[in-house]
Amino acid sequence: MIFTEIIDIEEMDEKVRVGKIPESVLVRSVLKKVKDRREEVLIGASVGEDCAVLQLKEDEVFVMSTDPITGTTKDLGKMAVHVTANDIASSGAEIVGIMLTILLPDGAKESDLKAMMEQMDEACEELKIQILGGHTEVTKAVNQPIITVTGVGKIKKDQVIVTSGAGPDQDVVLTKWIGLEGTSIIAKEKSEELKKRYPWAFVEKAKGFDQYISVVPEAKIATKHGVSSMHDVTEGGIFGALWELAESSGVGVDVDLKKIPVLQETIEICEYFCINPYLLISSGAMLMVSERGHDLVRKLEREGIHSVVIGKTTSSHDRVVRNGEEVRYLERPKTDELYQVVN
Known about the structure:
Elements: E1 19-20, H1 23-29, E2 41-43, E3 53-54, E4 60-69, H2 76-89, E5 94-105, H3 110-127, E6 130-139, E7 146-156, E8 171-175, H4 180-189, H5 191-195, H6 200-207, H7 216-225, E9 229-232, H8 237-249, E10 252-256, H9 264-272, E11 286-290, H10 293-302, E12 307-314, E13 319-323, E14 326-329
Parallel strand pairs: 5-6, 10-13
Antiparallel strand pairs: 1-6, 2-3, 4-7, 5-7, 8-11, 8-12, 9-11, 10-12, 13-14
Helix pairs in contact: 2-3, 4-6, 4-9
């Protein structure tokens, strides 16, 4: 379902009835936020179109990824775009656009939908990508808004980077800091409670960690540098991401816990809610594996992206995290710590 721009209808803010969003609402609160930004898109979002049509060059391939965003109601539109763009970026691909499925609970207002679309448009403008189409409806099957985003990217066929590409005896690089997404979500959802314990500025700073959510810039640098594997750190936190990378590649990892970067706000908020920051959703951080990890770190730092070599891959199947003399063996990822705080 896609649309063409028509004459503005008087702005309203009323509850939208259960079922497919009316065309008038669709045009004024959804399609007005959809911009043509990509030359690859031959047919995009407009009323009555069931499909988008994209054209690639002969030596290019599609890279696709899909994600539902369910862990927060704050900044839902922004998070939906960036999480999917990060997945596409981890393959080394350039994201072209996104397809949306937006499910709103019974009683949702048109202003809720419009606000989400404004957030998504801002994120798309930042990434220079396009909303290709999708579906929007109100349903009694959900009790809070849910956005499912399918991202479409492109890359030269011989340049695709896969998580399973890591080999033994390579450097493991981590960008930015762990726990950024989880910290931001908790700070927004539990703002009033946290402000009873911490200064206003502390909580507001933690809320703003979502400014670091995109890993697209570092992925571009890493792709040019020549990495063997990339994996964005999402649900399950850094421990889960390390396990997944090692499992996918059939290698071991040996990581120094003290080298894993984490901000003080994350540490304190996790301590307050008795959760483990190393198991907290961490969009905004990217794992990269490279033969020349320290060279990659220098390139990233020159572009203002904090990063560090946190360990090495190994030829064994042991997934080891060292903290001084203490040795921990990683387990399979479990339910993210976020859900102990935000339900």
